[in-house]
Fold:
Amino acid sequence: MSETNSAAAESAAPHRYTAAMAADIEARWQDFWDAEGTYAAPNPSGDLAGDPAVVARPKKFIMDMFPYPSGAGLHVGHPLGYIATDVFARHQRMSGHNVLHTLGFDAFGLPAEQYAVQTGTHPRTSTEANMENMKAQLRRLGLGHDKRRSFATIDPDYYKWTQWIFVQIFNSWYDSEAKKARPITELVAQFDSGERQAPGTRAWSELDAAERAEVLGGYRLAYASDAPVNWCPGLGTVLANEEVTADGRSERGNFPVFKAKLRQWNMRITAYADRLLDDLDALDWPEAIKLQQRNWIGRSEGARVDFAVGDDAITVFTTRQDTLFGATYMVLAPEHELVDTIVPAAWPEGTHEVWTGGHATPAEAVAKYRAFAASKSDVERQADAKEKTGVFTGAYAVNPVSGDQVPVFIADYVLMGYGTGAIMAVPAHDTRDFAFARAFELPMRCVVQPSDDRGTDASAWDEAFASYDAKLVNSANAEISLDGLGVAEAKEKMTEWLAGRGIGEGTVNFRLRDWLFSRQRYWGEPFPIVYDEDGVAHSLPASMLPLELPEVEDYSPRTFDPDDANTSPETPLSRNEDWVNVTLDLGDGPKRYRRETNTMPNWAGSCWYELRYLDPHNSEKLVDPAIEQYWMGPREGQPHGGVDLYVGGAEHAVLHLLYARFWSKVLFDLGHVSSAEPFHKLYNQGMIQAYVYRDARGFPVPAAEIEERDGQFFFEGEPVKRELGKMGKSLKNAVTPDEICSEYGADTLRLYEMAMGPLDVSRPWDTRAVVGQYRLLQRLWRNIVDETTGEVTVTDAEPDEATLRALHKAIDGAGGDLAEMRFNTAIAKITELNNHLTKAGGALPRTVAEPLVLLVAPLAPHIAEELWCKLGHLDSVVHQDFPVADPAYVVDETVTCVVQIKGKVKARLEIPPTISDEELEKLALADEAVLAALDGAGIRKVIVRAPKLVNIVPA
Structure:
């Protein structure tokens, strides 16, 4: 429409629903909601306590995954989940629930710090500016959040409790007999009383403070250790396994990641592996997410076996202890702590040249190979490379069942992250071991009878033979024989034999590793830990929390060559000497201490944020027990408690979700919360995608400037290729919600995003299609408001039966869809009703107009509030009851039944929907058109599918 025609239309219909009117309506109602506290959810007690009648309703706690306040702001893909939870929350509120729905900010993280390194801007300054921008964008969408409960993880009042939880974890240990965490003081009491013996030969009373701290460190759920870590010089920090991509690079920044040995804080999440697995069964989560967690935890049953090597022993974990007689060599991970101990000064006499790698001494060979392995990611090390690499350590171990001396190698295909970092190699029955044995001319021993005709001389085989069904052979000594046994029976017999001699035992192993919890960065929560002059770690008391971040002059870690594996970190906090070295009284008088200069990872604050939403201003407790019990406690159908609905992306399956579950279980064990799980129901929304246009060089060009001609796409006259991908600034295809709100209004944007398709499916954005939902709102407005006068046009007349049926079908269908988060089909049913009313013409009866507005309210709240107000109501539409369908009008009086003969339609019958098969068959066979079509022919079969189909098969 031209500008002249548009102006004429507005002049003729000054009260037409337009983008300008939408902007005015939306701003006014957003101000109203803020002023009135419309979305405030009352607690049963405390400073947020409210109307007891509302508290008495069924509760519903609805959450979105924590957003990070990016400097780029939002594009239209970001609010998809936020709009969905808002629609659901509004419907639940109208359905009689006390709804808690709010949103905070996960504001620590590397982007702000990298920006600080580049510009010198304090991370807090840029982060707070980003949050204000994001708050304004979200407010414009009309999201019904309880703003009293919002916070950011960078608020000292918030991370005080993050630090407090860390102290609880640090001061706890996992009692494997009780299967729960207990205070570390109870373990100390056991050592003091002699109920539990300290490791080693000395009594607990004989150990000094540093030695006792080292013993307790082996039990604490948060502990510091020197261990192989994922070192990322490009980010200047170490990374958890879950933060490293499949190709061995950092998830953020795409920098190379190397293996290094550093002293780091860890969380003993492995102690909870069984519970993390078992409790998944009771959660209402997508099966795909459950499977990812199960695979990441990776439970496997087998046996621990000790191989003597000199005065030491190499412990392996194997799931095939039945093949122990076939172990002809061993392999350690290059990082294994025993490597330095067992390497001799010179090569043993007769060492094969291929084993040495051409090096003069074992020490030289091992050092060179370790450097080579450190340059590869775990994924690269596990890949089936054509060339098998490794080197002999110069040491031999003793196979405990055969008594054979077996050489000990190091090789990159063995990782410290699984089992014990050591394997017994059975090359005849393992593909990788077979290839390695071929490369290094190692012997093979067949101990599982092949099912083909290859025979038992493994040296003549072309490939390994692996089977769980075959019988054992060549597996006997003077004390035990497995020959002739099946695998399961042989495993059980071998496990008993090992345990009886104290050289092994049946055990369970997990792929899950302890959570690496240190970061060598500035912008994170400081650890509430100080070290005394003996290096013993002490936690700060609650009275000294929060420990706030100090000011520093340089935010950059002092290592930043992304390709140099040999750099080592110097953290920004370590340069503030006045902050690091302090005098404190921790209960035994003033002493000098040194603070921990690492910070917590950006995941820390999101491990417990659901609890802070419940009781956000509590300065005395993590959360009031009565409030936590009310919102998150166990109840019927939710045996572990948790948030009623948690919506977010599937990409957090084994990062945030696993970590948060671990923290919840520790807090539950220690009695701080009643919920053992943080999130009962999880829903993964799909992604809004967008077309990416690339020029001849493959570079993205601005999507908004593309011209389409005859199915081809052009940028500045040159042809470009189109592909579907993510939406983002770097791909030059981002569309901001502000743009759509300005052109059509927030309610239109909300409707379009919900109408695009099922919420859990990814879908492409098409700005041209947005206008369809805009027109729906215009028709809705026009059905109730006169566009010329602005007056309401409804009447007190009674609706006709067709309108009643259309209305109640829409109420029934859309209500059920909203409750099940099928927003696209709910919108379709509301559209169908509105179209019926538009076609019917004339003024709407009030008894139709009001339910229509209530139907629309969860999806398009601004226009619903305006229309509700125009209909004469003084109270907000937000707290009205959702309309209830009259069953009498939901069921059709008649339905159309198709009668077919030989697959062709011969008649259509209007019949009651409740008709029986027998009655329908009689009616069909008596119909004149059917009789004429049969023309006296006999009937072989009649197939009835009441009430919609009768199929007649003539004889």
